[in-house]
Amino acid sequence: MSVFRSQRVDTWDICSRDLVSRHSRFRLRRYARSPFIYVRELAQGKQVREFSLGPLEHANAADVEKVRDLCLEGHRSGQWPAHCLGKPTTQVESWSALTEACVTDIERRIRKEGSRVHAINDLRLRIARFRDPVDPQHLLRWFLELDPVTSLKSFNRRIETLSQIQRSGLLDLAAVLERLRAMRPKGAAEKIRKASSMRVRVIPSDDDLQHWLDRLEPFHQWVFGCIATYGLRPHELWHAEGIDPQGWISIPGDMKTKTGEHFAPAVPEAWVERYGLRENWDQFHDQLNGRWKVRFADVSGVKIAVNNVAVSNALYKEFQRKGLQKLWAPVADGEGMDWVRPYDLRHAYAIRCATSEETADEFDDDMACWMGHGLDVHRRIYLRWLSSSRRKESLQRRRSGGGTAANRIQPFEPPSVVPSPSAALPEGITPELLEMAMKLKAAGLG
Predict the structure, then answer these.
(1) Judging by beta carbons within 10 Å of its beta carbon (0-12, 13-18, 19+), is residue 376 exposed, middle or buried?
(2) Which of 55, 148, 359, 362 has a 20 to 30 A CA-CA distance from 129?
(3) What Rg value do the Cα atoms of the chain yield, rounded?
(4) Cβ-count burial of 371 within 10 angstroms (0-12 exposed, 13-18 middle, 19+ buried)?
(5) Class of the domain covering 206-400
(6) Beta carbons within 10 angstroms of residue 202's beta carbon
(7) Residue 262 has what pLDDT?
């Protein structure tokens, strides 16, 4: 009996110390009044909940080792394994404890900072200040402050915050989430809401944009020139792999950027040379990455860029921090003027591709590929800001073949008089081909 007890104590101590040394979120606990193993969950060094793993017993060395392994599995994944036994016996005692536990859980599960920032802000800046005790109805009242028709974007963000609390396992919000999701507008109301809530873009004319770029100092001229010339999402410039001799830029995928790998031509081509985009690539691309560093996290052996939103926002802040002169232009839908944000330059590229003579022979799906999104997104979101007059002009140019690509390739017209045998034929035209063309023309088929 004493030998068995010694073995039990040693196994428990070894496993408990192992979890402590690894700073595991989940720890072992036992009580004299119960034969079962309990697990404590910690956040910021404080206990947020405790649950029993009965019928697993702390007197059984194999059970203790099994629970130790489950604790490590839960620590790695950021939440208690869903396939395991375990029912909470105590709930979180305060909103502050709940929020910190949820933030810890979110930071372990969601590595991209931009994908978790709204939920964390809601938790720390709003929910943590609720009056105790913790009650799901308090969250419901907080949500009902918003009208889902007029404030659906904020409404959906709060639903996402509740979903993260639900995923943490600290509070059962299934009924609240079901009610809130049912309140979202549907059908025609949803279409009207989407149209009215979409941010109106500011699309500068090419002449105004060029004049603004001409006045920037070299580094900012190169940065905003790249975004404007290739229609980049601002964060893509940090990850871009260079501009080839034909003037095309390469944007990688591999979890570095928002979408998969894609390639884009310069529109207009002249801006590549005008702003030294290819010539100064190494110098300014290194300077960009040195000034605002992209951070990566390893997730299951894959490197993921986690702060793309932050580095993109750094460009917005340049207008306040560095006092860059803003480019002002008419809003695309309605009256008035506004300043052109870095992301507006991407929208301007889409409009330019749809109206420029350089791309008049291209299809919308090609342009969508250049920008790294689907055809539906291209037409519904980006070409929405194409005015009726410019859309009509673009369609007429395409129908008449007025693009510069068409002008570079002239169809072969056989001469009305057959040249003498000694006359030089155009390059690529053989006597047999010339004879065939003359016969077709004579027959009225040429």
Answers:
(1) exposed
(2) 148
(3) 32
(4) buried
(5) mainly alpha
(6) 22
(7) 93
Strand partners, 338: 329
pLDDT tens profile 246-273: 999 999 988 888 888 999 999 999 999 9
Cα within 13 Å of Cα(7), Cβ side: 10
Look up residue 319 and give its two tokens: 């207008």
Q: Which of 341, 316, 308, 297 is nearest to 239 (CA)?
A: 308
pLDDT band at 410 (very low <50, low <70, confident <90, very high): very low
**426 prior amide bond cis, ω within 30:** no
pTM of the model: 0.61
For residue 45, which of 22, 78, 23 has the smallest C-alpha distance?
23
Tokens 């007429």, residue located: 396
CB 202 within 8 A of CB 332: yes
Give 297's contacts (C-beta < 8 A, 6+ positions apart).
111, 303, 304, 306
Q: What angle do CA 55, 72, 93 make, to 5 degrees?
A: 70
DSSP 8-state assignment for residue 274: H
Q: Are 226 and 342 in contact (CB under 8 A)?
A: no
DSSP state letters, 119-161: HHHHHHHTGGGSPSSP-HHHHHHHHTTS-TTTSHHHHHHHHHH
